[in-house]
Amino acid sequence: MTYCVGMVLDRGLVFMSDTRTNAGLDNISTFRKMHHWEIPGDRVLTLMTAGNLATTQAVVSILDERTKAPDDREPSILKAPSMFQAARLVADTLRDVIANHDQNGQQASSAFNATIILGGQINGGPTRLFLIYPEGNFIEAGTDTPFFQIGEMKYGRPILVRAYEPGMSFEEAMRLLLVSFDSTLKANLTVGLPFDYHLYEADSLTLGRSGRIELDDPYFQTVSQGWGDALKTALDSLPTFDLG
To answer: Which contacts of 188-192 are long-range, i.e. CB under 8 A and separated by 24 or more positions?
Structure first.
């Protein structure tokens, strides 16, 4: 399983993904689920994947291959005139890969299902964030839906819904996401460290701060322990149930 979050802030975009994949309890591996394409001064795109690993790797490989000789390989994500057109390209590629797994095509509920978050900025346009479905359609983040989750989302969603604010800093957003991811991995063993992240500053048109949070990261350990202690303190502060 997977857990990925893309978030829209006034300051820019924030992305975080786990790296665990599994094909049964005894076959657990680490694969990068966050990918970037950049032309400094022109565009920055970040893509995160969830679902069948063969499908997601094929999509990323096709998109990446087309960028290596843009004059000869069309269509290239590096030549899309807008983020909307880039999302259409990724959506078409995802749908085609799923269909190619079977002569009759695959439905969204099939074993080849995959979902993608795409975000970034292309010169001349604003930062945009999209959630792309296996059928090849997609939706865009906005005021009512300022963040997207894919994969194992239910455990980490409550803290995002309660604590997200568009004006928060990157530092505050990282803290929020780490609490969300910590809640998820404690509830589901198919989500695990390390976590990859990317912080994109709006209008910078260059890759922002990015990195990987490992299990022994001191800040993550502090957040994990502190959040657990805070929940217990909050629970203990509530009145106990009166059985009469």
So the answer is: 188/1, 188/152, 188/155, 190/1, 190/2, 190/20, 190/22, 190/152, 191/1, 191/2, 191/3, 191/18, 191/20, 191/151, 191/152, 192/18, 192/19, 192/20, 192/28
